Amino acid sequence: xxxxxxxxxxxxxxxxxxxxxxxxxxxxxxxxxxxxxxxxxxxxxxxxxxxxxxxxxxxxxxxxxxxxxxxxxxxxxxxxxxxxxxxxxxxxxxxxxxxxxxxxxxxxxxxxxxxxxxxxxxxxxxxxxxxxxxxxxxxxx
Length: 141
What we know:
Elements: E1 9-15, E2 18-25, E3 28-34, E4 38-78, E5 81-82, E6 91-93, E7 105-107, H1 111-121, E8 126-129, E9 132-135
Parallel strand pairs: 1-2, 2-3, 3-4, 4-5
Antiparallel strand pairs: 6-7, 8-9
């Protein structure tokens, strides 16, 4: 296990390994592979880094099941740019509890489209959601 102030190894294995290439449980390094990888490039289950390929990931360029990043690809995600989607793709946004009826709020590529939807929903104004626009002045909870 790495200690605070330890010099990184070239290749490290184990629990909390610290290395240029780290493999294990909570690996930390430039390239991290494991259960909770934290590195510039992270591959694993729950990853944090600049480039991630993880089930759950957070970073700049992220691919996985449930992710958050500037550029992302996955089943469910959040961020300004979804890879593989058309730039004007409508973003589905859900805020409802099971059995609770809620208006279907969507994000639109133009402010005007969001204003039209706001009028249809009976609310006023719009708000930005990344590079898209959503109806109603405030985001519903």
